[in-house]
Amino acid sequence: MFKRLKEDIKSVFDRDPAARNSFEVLTNYPGVHAILMHRAAHSLWNKDLKLMARSLSSFSRLLTGIEIHPGATIGRRFFIDHGMGVVIGETAEIGNDVTLYHGVTLGGTTWNKGKRHPTLEDGVVVGAGAKVLGPITIKKGAKIGSNSVVTKEVPEDATAIGIPGRIIRKQDNCTDEAERKRRAIAERIGFVAYGETQNVNDPIAQSIRGLLDHILAVDHKLESMCQALEKLDSSYRDEALPELNPQDFEGVTNGETPSEVVAEILSEDKLRSSKD
Length: 276
Description:
Helices cover about 40% and strands about 15% of the residues. By secondary structure, the chain is α/β, with parallel strands linked by helices.
C-alpha cells in the first residue's frame, strides 16, 4: 500500500511542475485522493460489497469532483491533473502511467450489460474535456487532444483530435517552394488549411493539400498547352470562354430547376465580385 502511495506521489512530481513537496501533494491534490478512495472502493466491489463500494465512490465524488465507478480497473501511477468533472465508467480499464486532465469522460454508448467503456493502455494521455466513448481501445502511448470525441480505436503512439476524433500524423517532407505554391493556390480558391503546423496535420487538411498539389499540376499543364497553342495562333489567348446560360439546363432538383440553381450561383458570384 505505501509503495503504491509513494509511486502515486512520484508520478505527480513527474507530470506536474507545480508540485512542491510530498505533503502538499498528499493533502491538496484531489486526483490523488480520488485514486486512493477508488482503490478502497474497488476492493469492496470485488468482495461483492457493492453498496458500500458505491457509497464510498459517491463520497469521493462529493469530496474531489471526480467520479470513478468502483468497478473500473486502474493500473499503477495513474495521474488525474486538476480532476474536476472527470468521469470513469464501470467497465473502463486503465493501464499504467496514464494521465487524464479535467473534464475527461471515459463513457459508454449503450445501456447493454458487458464491456461498454474504453480501455486505455500504458502511457496514454487524454487532454482536458475529451470524451472517449464505447468499448474501444486507446493503444499504448496514444494521445487524445483536448475536447475531442473519440469513438474508434486509436493506434499506438498516434494522436486523435477533433469531433469525431481523427488520427493525425507527421507531415510528409516537402520543399519550401512546394509549400509556397500550395499556399498560393489555396488562397486563390479561398481555402486555408486550419490547424496546420510544421509537425502534424489534420487528415482532412492533408487530403486537401493533395488536391491543391493536383490542381497546381493541372494549371502547369494547361499553361504549357496554352503556350503551344499560342504559337499556332497568336490570337488564341484573346478568345474568351463562353458564358454559362442557365436556360441550357433542364430538370428538377430539390423543387428547383437547374437553371434556377445556376442563376442563383451566378448572382452570388456577381455579388462576391462587387464586394471584392
